[in-house]
C-alpha cells in the first residue's frame, strides 16, 4: 500500500507561524465564534499535514489556506443547519420520547454522515433518493417530477443505494481511505 506524503515539520511549522493568526482571525470573523474558529484553523493545518501543498510565496499560501477555510466554513454551516433542524424536530416531541444525550449525539453524527453521503451524489440521484426514501414517492411520480423514465429512476436509486452501502462499510470501519 503506498504511503500518503506528509509535509515536513519545518514546512508546516513555517506555514503555521506565518499564517495561523491571520487564518484564525479570518475564521473568527466568518463564523462569529472564537472556539469554532480555533477548531477549524486546527483542522486546516491537520489537512495541510496530510496533503502538503507545493506553494511559492505568501499570496499562494494564504490563497490555499483561505480555499480550505471556505470549504470548511460551508461544511460547518451545513452541519449547524442540520443540527438546528434536528433540534427543532426533537423539541416538537413529547418529553417521554426524547432520546438520551448519548443517543442524540449518535443521531446527529449519523445525520452528518448521511448528509455528506447525499452531498457526494449527483443532483438527480440525490433528488430521486430523497423523493423515494423521505417522501415515499413511487417511481412513476419521481420520474414525472425529474422528467425521466422510470427505468432511469431505478438506476438513480441503485446508484444511491451503492453509496449507502459504501457509507455503511465506511462507518463500520471496513473501508480505509
Structure write-up:
With 177 residues, the chain is mostly helical. The protein folds into two domains: 82 residues, Rna Polymerase Sigma Factor, Chain: A, CATH 1.10.1740; 73 residues, Orthogonal Bundle (Arc Repressor Mutant, subunit A). Helix content is 77%, strand content 0%. The chain has seven helices and no strands. Helix 1 packs across helix 3. The relative contact order is 0.07.
Gist?
The chain is mostly helical and 177 residues long. It is built from 7 helices and no strands.
Element layout with pairings:
Layout: H1 9-31, H2 34-50, H3 57-91, H4 101-120, H5 123-133, H6 139-146, H7 150-171
Helix pairs in contact: 1-2, 1-3, 3-4, 4-7, 5-6, 5-7, 6-7
Domain RNA polymerase sigma-70 region: 15-81
InterPro entries: RNA_pol_sigma-70-like, RNA_pol_sigma-70_dom, RNA_pol_sigma70_r2, RNA_pol_sigma70_r4_t2, RNA_pol_sigma_r2, RNA_pol_sigma_r3/r4-like, WH-like_DNA-bd_sf
Protein name: Sigma-70 family RNA polymerase sigma factor
Mean pLDDT: 84
Taken together, the total number of domains comes to 2
Strand count, sense and barrel status of the largest sheet are: none
Beta percentage is under 5%
Shape designation: globular
Structural class: mainly alpha
Uncertain spans, ≥5 residues at pLDDT below 50?
none
CATH architecture descriptor text of the largest domain: Orthogonal Bundle
In sequence order, what are the helices and strands, one letter per element?
HHHHHHH
What is the helix tally? Answer: 7
The residue fraction in helices comes out at over 70%
Return Rg in Å: 21 Å
Distance between the termini: 11 Å
- Counted beta strands: 0
Using the coordinates shown, work out and report the CATH topology of the largest domain. Answer: Rna Polymerase Sigma Factor, Chain: A
Classified by CATH, the class of the largest domain is Mainly Alpha
Family: Belongs to the sigma-70 factor family. ECF subfamily.
Organism: Pseudomonas idahonensis
Domain RNA polymerase sigma factor 70 region 4 type: 112-164
Protein name: Sigma-70 family RNA polymerase sigma factor
Amino acid at each position: 500500500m503506498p504511503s500518503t506524503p506528509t509535509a515536513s515539520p519545518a514546512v508546516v511549522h513555517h506555514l503555521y507561524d506565518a499564517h495561523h493568526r491571520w487564518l484564525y482571525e479570518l475564521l473568527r470573523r466568518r463564523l462569529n465564534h472564537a472556539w469554532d474558529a480555533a477548531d477549524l484553523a486546527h483542522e486546516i493545518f491537520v489537512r495541510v499535514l496530510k496533503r502538503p501543498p507545493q506553494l511559492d510565496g505568501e499570496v499562494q499560501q494564504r490563497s490555499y489556506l483561505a480555499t480550505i477555510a471556505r470549504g470548511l466554513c460551508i461544511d460547518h454551516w451545513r452541519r449547524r443547519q442540520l443540527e438546528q433542524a434536528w433540534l427543532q424536530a426533537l423539541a416538537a416531541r413529547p418529553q417521554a420520547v426524547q432520546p438520551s444525550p448519548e443517543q442524540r449525539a449518535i443521531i446527529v453524527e449519523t445525520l452528518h454522515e448521511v448528509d455528506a453521503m447525499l452531498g457526494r451524489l449527483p443532483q438527480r440521484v440525490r433528488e430521486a433518493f430523497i423523493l423515494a426514501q423521505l417522501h415515499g414517492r413511487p417511481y412513476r411520480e419521481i420520474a414525472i417530477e425529474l422528467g425521466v423514465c422510470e427505468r432511469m429512476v431505478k438506476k438513480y436509486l441503485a446508484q444511491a443505494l451503492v453509496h449507502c452501502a459504501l457509507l455503511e462499510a465506511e462507518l463500520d470501519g471496513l473501508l480505509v481511505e
